[in-house]
Write a structure and sequence with these properties.
Catalytic activity (chains A, B): (6S)-5-methyl-5,6,7,8-tetrahydrofolate + NADP(+) = (6R)-5,10-methylene-5,6,7,8-tetrahydrofolate + NADPH + H(+)
Structural class of chain A: alpha/beta
Number of strands of chain A: 19
Largest sheet of chain A: 8 strands, parallel, barrel
GO cellular component, one term (chains A, B): cytosol
Function (chains A, B): Catalyzes the conversion of 5,10-methylenetetrahydrofolate to 5-methyltetrahydrofolate, a cosubstrate for homocysteine remethylation to methionine. Represents a key regulatory connection between the folate and methionine cycles.
GO molecular function, one term (chains A, B): FAD binding
Protein name (chains A, B): Methylenetetrahydrofolate reductase (NADPH)
Distance between the termini of chain A: 68 Å
Largest interface: A-B, 86 and 86 residues
Helix content of chain A: 25-40%
Oligomer: homodimer
Chain lengths: 658, 658
């Protein structure tokens, strides 16, 4: 739920003078936190900590789900996992968690480390994330170091685990961490209440515990030491979990207990997991699986059916506020279970038109320049050192400016496509500027290029066209074909409901608006004609035109930003999440031009004709953005481009006459 | 001109990296000045100093006018003069000036002092104001004290004059101020460039000067000492002024020279002024006036005709960027001259929907609670100690809260009507709550009450209904008749052009929006039914309901403000100048209830039935505000009130049945 209107019962709520000043204090504090005190808190979910979100959803009976992932083994695995976070994040998990792999240098800055994966999920994918941490065979200093680093990276939640001892026999270590309880205590002692802490529960008892009751007692100790909620080990029968919850409650454990759901996905993975967790697979499951053990699809289908049935029982019991899924870094089975349960939110309501970062420092961020619309991770990366969002309207000298540009090499910003695939899409050999135009056109139309390959991405857009942009497809294709190489656009919108499935965002009952926007590269010849044409469209159309050297022409008023997306909601101030800002455009310009070289030209040999063509465009074309301020009227930007071409045609005609 | 879009010529404006960071610096600085960094500067006029405004309008050939007033003799004269400022301010003067009356304790806090009148014009009437200051027979300390006080009160402009010496013979004083030049130097020395300084010019030479040329030399000295512009003594022939300007330019005076225009308004005032200024009235004027000297109307008409003719010549000369009028604190003649010249802007474009204060500290103010819409001077008074507008969203504990409530006694907030007139309008004797309802209804309908007197104002509204509110007249009258005593309302507006003559505001080419708003007092019985009805309108309608004790019911989300007026403009961020704010509503509540007693009940004898009736309403009624969030649909607030009455009728019916 994005929005919960606070309802008032019939009894008078006393709000005398002192009450009202109390309320005003909190207003003042929240406004101090934000650089823009006009920011309405559109979504309390954004600002609440995980345990508060759980409490609110438990109270409202709004079931949730969460997803567990493990860190990838390879760099390209990391790129894929980040894409998976984006896709699975769109289904609306309450949180994800990332396991701790002691063998994989889990606290390092490697792209495959648990720490970096969890940090990327929070900062770049906007997912509330829980980082696992195991403590056995670790010094306190090491653990404190990990926790400090996690805090610095914006992580707010820790799953505190003992971890597997080295060697087979378990020995207590003097002064070290011997149990997860020690870790929970250590976190609370060193970091007070900063982290939300999760601990593991074992519905059939920990394999090393002396008894089930003994294990329950340990769990109670972990909770008493400061844990906020429990996630259980996997199990195969709903009853197992429900009995466990009853037993927990009986000894005074009151925090949320989330069942760990493991949809069976294959014979091998089941065997492996069962071996690791020392669980026994019930007879009735083995009976089904054994006969089909060579048929992966059949096992998966059975696993989905079994998980759905068990989850239904759990949810219906009233004891389970949310479900936790062991995904094994796979998508299909878990998504299918969630879909069947009705928990997968196909079209999750967006609190803002762009994906909000989950970093606690950025939670108040409520406006971004439109330029990075298709490269939000790059924007987050380049503004990661800011304290304010935006930073003094994108350029206060007292704050750091936009960060370095060489973000092409960061794993969470890397293209999902290989060099080979990119060459197929963008052309093994370019023969003219025209062949570049065709690549753009194929991308827009989602049609195969001349070599028969679908163009799925461009350097400025790693994803196929957004549904919203699809509305403009035909117009876009028409102009791209003629060398107006569009990289960003939005249609005008005059008050659509905030619940609109394509353009809606924000709480229900509101209205969203947009000014039409078009951003493209084009030749200097075209720009000369365009500037002539734009005189007719004053002050209706705002423009910025710049080349790679920074030659800049604009009719922006006093370098002020132009709001191009805004929303009006019941009982709120106006929200304007997207602007065209003249100052940040100059930073974007550097990035947009560099992408020609870094992502496209470098695919080809030095001095090769293909490379020279891209380099020519990079050196000579202009980056143009246009805003049609008259949002209630029909978008005039296509007319502007038409007029430009008409003027150019006239020139040719005249030249030919001469 | 409210808005000047910065146009760009065809040559490339270079804006390399260093340029863009330069721009970003200034952006950062301006955002620091404002508590709301989202504030777009809608009107550079608001932030510029007087000499810059003059320069810009001179450059654009946009002629202006300014108005001179003298301080009133009596307290009621002060009340009237403030009303005149409001009326004449609506014609769009570039500035007004207030003369310095050494005999009237000009620097004191008396309501008739030059200082207080000029301060009121700036702070409460939103007029750019120039305070005269004479220096002869004054110590430097005294003068510095006056200037410091003026600065503290928000005055930014001084007309530096020598003043008339005491006694008939003029003697130089050792170390004192002997000439206006000394005062100009003193201001620049003590206050650097803080003030804009005006000095007087004498088109026919100062009466005490040795010669015309000698006088010009003195004028040059004053300008060289730091004066920014010149206003001339009155004259009767355009040629006199134009020769004077030529002579000034010839000796190197380059600053603006504004002609002082004196429309002849009567025989006596002309004689008096001529005597004081030692001017001679030209033969051709005396020939016209002498025969009609007993006929004031005829003289005034001649004066208007003469002034218009002379002003036309001046403006057409190209030497005159603006005209300065000696109004003698009268309206008719000057307004008529300005109308005929086309300089009186009948419907001046409003930069915001409310009148902006001209205090330099408040120039960035861009949002106010709607509650004070009809009492803007009270809002300004009660927030005069704030450093930020709004003050931490109307209630930061680190800033002062709303100022004292007893503003009823301040001359610039006093009703223009006498106690006697108020009694006639609001009833010499009230017999029931019903008779109060009738007063409200008569006010809304602009019709005479039962005693035959038109109700021109209410304690909450010192002016007749605003044109915008007039749109709602019939609905308002209907509900007032039944005890829904409305004190503030606005219709919903879904994107009218910003140039709309009734609801428009802000720069041209924009669109303005409103949510429907209704604020009223009503009985607790009505409120009980209303709350029942409002359940049907969740979350479409936001409400706050409070009684004098502060019993408060609301469905406001997290005590957040609700934007009820906003505008979308070319190349700007969204502007939202009016909000319904839950925190400030509690302060407004105190004021709104107190007005029943202070302005109405106190008209009647203690313990009189009339007084008891008003007191009963004050003690028992609730103050209600309603916002219809669904601005694109038909306003549902009338339906809400209808539903409330219907529910009440049902109750009566049921009671009667029983």
């Amino acid at each position: 739920m994005v929005n919960q209107v606070q309802t008032v019962d019939d009894t008078w709520r006393r709000c005398s003078k002192s009450d009202s000043s109390g309320a005003s204090n909190s207003g003042g504090e929240s406004s101090k936190e934000s650089s823009r005190s006009s920011t309405p808190v559109l979504d309390t979910d954004r600002t609440d900590r995980l345990r508060d979100k759980m409490r609110r959803r438990t109270e409202s009976g709004d079931h949730w789900f969460s997803l567990e992932f493990f860190p990838p083994r390879t760099a390209s695995g990391a790129v894929n996992l980040i894409s998976r976070f984006d896709r699975m994040g769109s289904g609306g998990p309450l949180f994800i968690d990332v396991t701790w792999h002691p063998a994989g240098d889990p606290g390092s800055d490697k792209e495959t480390s648990s720490m970096m994966i969890a940090s990327t999920a929070v900062n770049y994918c906007g997912l509330e994330s829980v980082l696992h941490l195991t403590c056995c065979n670790q010094t306190k200093e090491k653990i404190t170091g990990y926790l400090s680093k996690a805090k610095r990276l914006g992580l707010k939640n820790i799953m505190a685990l003992r971890g597997d001892p080295i060697g087979t026999d378990w020995e207590e270590e003097e002064g070290g961490f011997n149990y997860a309880t020690d870790l929970v205590k250590h976190i609370r002692c060193e970091f007070d209440d900063y982290f939300d802490i999760c601990v593991a529960g074992y519905p059939t008892g920990h394999p090393e515990a002396q008894s089930y009751d003994e294990d329950l007692k340990h769990l109670k100790e972990k909770v008493d030491a400061g844990a906020d909620f429990i996630i259980t080990q996997l199990f195969f029968r709903a009853d197992t979990f429900l009995k466990f919850v009853r037993d927990c409650r009986a000894i005074g454990i009151t925090c949320p207990i989330l069942p760990g759901i493991f949809p069976i996905q294959g014979y091998q993975s089941l065997r492996q997991l069962v071996k690791l967790s020392k669980l026994e697979v019930p007879e009735e499951i083995m009976r089904v699986i054994e006969p089909i053990k060579e048929n992966d699809a059949a096992i998966r289908n059975y696993g989905i059916e079994h998980a759905v049935g068990m989850c239904r029982m759990l949810l219906e019991s009233g004891e389970v506020p949310g479900l936790h899924f062991y995904t094994l870094n796979r998508e299909v089975a878990t998504m299918e279970v969630l879909r069947q349960l009705g928990l997968w939110i196909e079209d999750p309501r967006r609190p803002l038109p762009w994906a909000v970062s989950a970093h606690p420092k950025r939670k108040v961020e409520d406006v971004r320049p439109i330029f990075w619309a298709s490269r939000p991770k790059s924007y987050i990366y380049r503004t990661q050192d800011w304290d304010d969002f935006p930073n003094g309207r994108w350029g206060n000298s007292s704050s750091p400016a936009f960060g370095e540009l060489n973000d092409y090499y960061l794993f969470y910003l890397k293209s999902k496509s290989s060099k080979d695939a990119l060459l197929k899409m963008w052309g093994e050999e370019l023969t003219s500027e025209k062949s570049v135009y065709e690549v753009f056109t194929s991308y827009i139309m989602a049609e195969p290029n001349q070599a028969g390959h679908k163009v799925m991405c461009l350097p400025w857009n790693d994803e196929p066209l957004a549904p919203e942009t699809n509305l403009l497809k035909d117009e876009l294709a028409k102009v791209n074909r003629r060398g107006v190489l569009t990289i960003n656009s939005q249609p005008s919108i005059n008050g659509k409901p905030s619940s609109d499935s394509i353009v809606g965002w924000g709480p229900p009952g509101g209205y969203v608006f947009q000014k039409a926007y078009l951003e493209f590269f084009t030749s200097s010849e075209n720009v000369t004609a365009l500037l002539q044409v734009l005189k007719k469209y004053e002050p209706r159309v705002n423009y910025h035109i710049v080349n790679v050297q920074g030659q800049n022409t604009t009719n922006a008023h006093d370098m002020q930003p132009n709001a191009v997306t805004w929303g009006i909601f019941p009982g709120r101030e106006i929200v304007q999440p997207t602007v065209v800002d003249p100052v940040s455009f100059m930073y974007w310009k550097d990035e947009a031009f560099a992408l020609w070289i870094e992502q496209w030209a470098k695919l080809y040999e030095d001095e090769s004709p293909s490379r020279m063509i891209i380099k020519y465009i990079h050196d000579n074309y202009f980056l143009v953005n246009l805003v049609d301020n008259d949002f209630p009227l029909d978008n005039c930007l296509w007319q502007v481009i038409d007029d430009m071409f008409e003027l150019l045609n006239m020139h040719y005609f005249i030249e030919e006459m001469e």
